[in-house]
Amino acid sequence: MGYFLTIAASDTSGGAGVYQDLKVAQYYGFWGLSALTAITSQDFTTVYSVTPLEKEVFEKQLQCLLKSFKPDCIKIGLVPNVEILDIIYYYLQKASTYVVLDPVFQSSSGFGFIDDSYIALLKKSLSDCVSVITPNSNELARLIGENNLDYKRAIEAAKMIVKQYNCDLYVKGGHFSGNLIQEAYISAKDCYEFEYVRQHWAYSHGTGCAFSSALAINRILHTDIKKVLQESHYYVNEFYEALNKI
User: What is the DSSP track for 129-173?
Assistant: First the structure.
């Protein structure tokens, strides 16, 4: 049994954050470990509050986990402030493992999590301890200091980040317009582009969390990155198709 570590926030509705990540781990037969970064108050549509854990409390979680376990892969979700991001950066430089960063800058309902001082340290972590980052178009725009990226410009920006920070990048396409969702995986050597029919699920809370966690685990299970991405998308589609039939 492999070990999967999620570093993310709680979700009172149970559909995203740490709780969604642990569902993914259980599905794939991995033992789920977790370090909470914040406690949120939210339902399926709205984030009402985000309360960061005290940095000493957060650090103790990460410290004891990395002392007692060697995670096969790590997924990072919502990191609510620079202090907690700095602790993650310190410990992950020492952890030789596959790390997926799913940057959460703002909830879909508009609740903002970070300020501008956060971005510089995040970029530093890309070079030193992140294997792949999975931003949507809005998060990618924030990383490069632009607004309203179309798909073509997003690919250009992703290639620039990959070259500059030496990590892979998956452009999530849910925020682009159109009936087809366009996405791409960019590494130093390759650019794989994908098109998917846009799903109009009544319940889609936590899809980004589910995909990034599935990506982290599938990268351990498979060597072919195309297989990794296909399996990760398959998991998300199957999970939410089943959920929306309930």
Answer: H-SEE---HHHHHHHHT-SS--HHHHHHHHHHHHHHH--EEEE--
Q: What is the pTM of this model?
A: 0.94
Whether 37 and 79 have beta carbons less than 8 Å apart is answered as yes
Task: Report which of 109, 171, 100 is spatially closest to residue 141, judged by C-alpha positions.
Answer: 171
> Measured between alpha carbons, how far is 201 from 181 in angstroms, rounded to an integer?
14
Nearest Cα neighbor of 137 from 99, 180, 105, 101 is 105
Per-residue pLDDT of the chain (246 residues; tens, 9 = 90+): 899 999 999 999 999 999 999 999 999 999 999 999 999 999 988 888 889 999 999 999 999 999 999 999 999 999 999 999 999 999 998 888 999 999 988 655 555 667 777 888 998 899 899 999 999 888 888 888 888 888 899 999 999 999 999 999 999 876 667 778 889 999 999 999 988 888 888 888 899 999 999 999 999 999 999 999 999 999 999 999 999 987
Beta strands in the chain (DSSP E): 3-8, 31-36, 38-42, 47-52, 73-76, 98-101, 132-133, 168-171, 180-186, 191-197
Tokens encoding 206: 């936590």
